[in-house]
Amino acid sequence: MKGRFITFEGPEGAGKTTQIQGLARRLEGLGLRVILLREPGGTALGEWVRNVVKHDATGEALDGVTELFLFCAARRHLVERVIAPALDAGQWVICDRFLDSTAVYQGYAGGVALGVLNEVNRLAVGRCMPDRTLLMDLDVGVGLRRVAGRASDRDGADSFEARGLAFHQKVREGYLDLAARDPKRFRVIRADRPTEVVAADIWERLRDYVA
Ligand code: T5A
Fold first, then answer.
1. Protein residue with its CA nearest to atom 51 in ligand 1
2. Considering Cα of 120, then 121, then 122, then 127, what sign does the dihedral take?
3. Quick check: 61 pLDDT over 90?
4. Which of 48, 50, 134, 144 is deepest in the core (most CB within 10 A)?
C-alpha cells in the first residue's frame, strides 16, 4: 500500500496527541509502517526551535515574522530529512501540526501577511503537502481548560497557551476558514466528544485510505 501523509491540526488541547497515538496503533495493527512526528520537533533542529518558541529559551520576545522563519526552517529540515524519505519508502507519516499551524498562529492570529506567509510555507514544504488534514475543532475555552489542568502538573502555561482567549479564538476561526477553502484536503472533526467517539470519527474519515 502507498505511503500517506496525514496531519492533525487544531487549537490548544483539542486532543491531537491523544488521537494520533490511537490512530498509529490501529494502522500498525493492519501491518502498515507508521512514523509519528510533531511540529516543531522531529529533528534536533526542530526540538531546539520548540524549546525557543514554547519556553522562551532565549529570554527574548519574538515577533510573528521571526516565529514564521523559525517554524519554517524547522519544517524544511524535517521535510528533507524525515518526511520525504519516509513517504518515498511507502511509510505512513502522521504529523502533529504542520504548515496550517503557521498559517493560523502566525498569520490569522499573529498578523503576518498571509501572501508572504504562504510563499514561505510553500518553499518549506516543497512537494510534501499532506494528503489529508484532520482539523480537531473545539471551543477554545474548553481546550485551554484541558491544557491548564495538565499544565498545573508541569511548569505552567507555555508562551502560546498564555496568549489569551481572543488570540485563540482567531486561531480557531482561521482553521475553519482554511478548511472551508480546501474541503478536498481537510476533514473537520468535532473534538468535544468522548475520546473513543472522536477516534471512530477519525477512522471513518480515513477509511478510503485503509480499505
Ligand atoms: N505553533 C506550532 C505555531 O505557532 N506555529 C507553527 O507553525 C507550529 C507548528 C506547539 C505550539 O506551537 C505553536 C502552536 C502550539 O501552541 P504543542 O505542545 O505541540 O505546542 O501544542 P499542542 O499541539 O496544542 O498540544 P497540546 O498537547 O497542548 O494539545 P493536543 O495535543 O491537541 O491535546 P492532548 O491530546 O495533549 O490533550 C490535551 C488534554 O485533554 C485531554 C487529554 O487527556 C489531555 O489532558 N483530552 C480530552 N479530554 C476530554 N475529552 C477528550 N476527547 C479528550 N482528548 C484529550
1. 195
2. positive
3. no
4. 134
Best residue among 8, 55, 105, 112 to mutate for probing ligand 1's pocket (most ligand atoms within 8 Å of CB) is 105
**Domain containing residue 169: CATH number:** 3.40.50.300
pLDDT at 161: 78
Q: What is the pLDDT of residue 155?
A: 55
Q: Give, for ligand 1, the residue of 12, 39, 56, 104 to mutate: max count of ligand atoms closer than 8 Å to Cβ.
A: 12
Residue 19 pLDDT > 90: yes
Q: What is the pLDDT of residue 154?
A: 55
CA-based nearest residue to 86, from 30, 50, 43, 49: 43
Please tell me if the CB atom of residue 40 comes closer than 6 angstroms to any atom of ligand 1: yes
Q: Which of 100, 98, 67 is nearest to 83 (CA)?
A: 98
Domain count of the fold of the chain: 1
CB atoms within 10 A of CB 195: 12
pLDDT for 169-201, tens place per residue? 999 999 999 999 999 999 999 999 999 999 999
pTM comes to: 0.96
Residue nearest to atom 24 of ligand 1 (CA): 12
Q: Give the range of the structural domain holding residue 99, as residue numbers without chain letter.
A: 5-210
Rounded-to-integer distance, Cα 97 and Cα 42, Å: 12
**Distances 120 to 30, 36, 106, 114, 185 between C-alpha atoms, Å:** 37, 24, 12, 10, 20
CA 96 to ligand 1 center in whole angstroms: 9
